[in-house]
Specification:
Layout lengths: L4 H7 L2 H14 L23 E5 L2 E5 L10 H21 L4 H13 L10 E3 L2 E6 L8 E6 L26 E5 H7 L6 E6 L5 E8 L4 E8 L14 E7 L4 E7 L5 E8 L7 E5 L6 E6 L6 E6 L8 E2 L4 E8 L3 E8 L2 E8 L9 E2 L6 E2 L8 E4 L9 E8 L2 E9 L5 E8 L4 E4 L7 H8 L18 E9 L5 E9 L10 E5 L16 H4 L4 E5 L8 H6 L6 H17 L8 E6 L1 H12 L6 E5 L5 H6 L7 H7 L5 H10 L13 E7 L6 H14 L8 E6 L7 H18 L3
Parallel strand pairs: 16-20, 29-30, 29-31, 31-32, 32-33, 33-34
Antiparallel strand pairs: 1-2, 3-4, 4-5, 5-6, 7-8, 8-9, 10-11, 11-12, 12-13, 14-15, 17-18, 18-19, 19-21, 22-23, 23-24, 24-25, 25-26, 27-28, 28-30
Helix pairs in contact: 4-15, 9-10
Amino acid sequence: MRISWSVLVYQRRPHQISAAVNLLRYAHYKPPRQQPAPKAPKPPKPPQKPQSFTLHDATWEDPYSWMSNLNDKVAMRHMDVYMEQEEKYTEAVMSDTEKLQSKLMSEMASRLSYDLSTPPVRWGPWVYYRRVEEGKQYPVLCRRLVSLNEEFISHKSPSAGFDFTSGKRIEQKLIDYNQEAERFGGYAYEELSEVSPNHQFFAYTMYDKDNDYFKLSVRNLNSGSLCSKPQAERVSNIAWAMEGKALLYVVTDQHKRPFRIYCSMIGSVEDDVLLLEEPNDNVYVNLRHTKDFQFVTVNTFSTTSSKNVFVLEEDSVVEDVDFSDKYLALIIREGRNFRICSVALPLPVGKGELNLKELNPQFLPLPQSGTQISPGPNYDFCSTTMRFTISSPVMPDAVVDYDLSNGKWNIIQQQNLLHERTRILYGTASSGRINQKLSSLIDVKSDNNPWNELSEFYGWEHYDVPSHDGVMVPLTIVYSHSHRKENSNPGLLHGHGAYGELLDKRWRSELKSLLDRGWVIAYADVRGGGGRGKKWHHDGRSAKKQNAIEDYIASARFLMDKGIVKEDKLAGWGYSAGGLLVASAINQRPNLFRAAILKVPFLDPTNTLLYPILPLIAADYEEFGYPGDVDDFNAIRRYSPYDNIPKDTVFPAVLVTSSFSTRFGVWEAAKWAARVRERTIYDPECPVLLNLTTDIVEENRYLHCKESALETAFLLKVVGS
């Protein structure tokens, strides 16, 4: 029997027909062309305009010196174009981290304290405090009478200072810094402020970013209006006298050296009177009223000379002093440890230097992890209670009131990161409803963890690291207990090493995002900083700056040799003079570092010290060297980051943040970035980026969050987690 082929086709089941059709399709199928991977963005290339310089028989060329010619309109137009190119390049390189940045910013913002009030400070019949109103960028300064304070809770509610029971308004707004921002071009940064002893006037200095100085104003607290005088410029210090009828203030010269003291009579139409002028360029002037406002002390000092009140143990330093009518409080640093002690007054008279042990000091309790202590605004001269801020790498800052008469203490304010809340103990609630609401916000410290340390989750360790000359350098590390593994963790090494300043090792909530991703945060107390007294400072400054750089390199090497940080997973971090430290270390050992964050860094000391565009003071030359001295000049040339970028080397990935504000020289960062790209081997996996801002980010918590998210995303992108 003959069977038609066409019948067989139609008798096939549906799935068989579908398979046949698919076979025909595949027979004619052509795979789509693979899309090429997007090309890595190319960094901008600014024009080179070489200019020669000669000093001490040395001649060098700077192809990018035109970037700092602020009075050259053509150069500044070129600079504007170049800065725009840098901004677009950074955006392009970081475009694949936009979601990560958003996630990080959400993490960091969630850790900001919900209550934006400062703890109230009692002075006379008033308590003073600052708070941020919802939706506002800057705080308001407020006060309320002590007699009404006990019926008031200043927490998230009531945010405007109302007593819920009586409904009476008990808060007096003194200054709204959002309005001050309108006076100063949209920016409000206060450096000094003092209420007069009669509580009628408020003297304060605001930063004028267009002119790069602080301007003094006095406001009448009864009327709220500004006084006609004084309204001085370049003010660095203030002190009230004559029970609030006179204000003394210090002004700086063109090089920002405090050198003149004036007296202004409040309400007078007479010109302010010059009381003192210091002619020595190496000497600075400041003043301070005594706590009872009976006297004003005038002090002259130099960065190279000081004298201690007391005889202490070796390796001990008095960092700060405060006092009341009955007690003296001393902040003492013993090696790397800080302590607070109280001494009964009056002190013995006519015995010369005093041995602290003979004064029977009472040492006050501190957390085990405490690394820094700062005195608070202790205005009440007759109170036995003094306020201090205690800082630690594994504990949010604690504002603590100590009773110097008996050693008792109480934490007044501290953020509890475990519940993402801030604890502020202001008084007693006058409503059961309020008590119930606040009970979920206020976390009472436990007996097992009275300081609310985070040591259950994060650990910290101290090491002594041998440097190139055998000197032992203090190194502190912080890590997550659940993520630490030998030879596998990425790390971030902080350094500063300048001006005898202590390296800031306080807990910073933005670093939690790195710790929780397995990073180790390390702090190297290199020479030049304030780690171990004045000799430690002197051994790392000026012609000895190389010691600080070697200390930082030794600390980096130690982290990897001990398996604390994995090879090729270490990043550096430096702010201002710390940026010079990190950049110099990278020049000398680029293979040690995978990445770096340089924040408003000092990168071109040769040209900046020789031809300063922004004012420098004697302390800057004492710190980095006098180019006029041939030995200092040669040392500057050896450590200068801009002058020693290695050629034909793969450089680490670097994110440099700078500001268009005249307070910082954006050209230093721009010159350095251009020269790094010009001299080193281009690697798209190791970009050198500029992040430019318009303001000082640290004064705006949300801008600070945004910048921290960018920095963290950069580190995670180029180093990993």
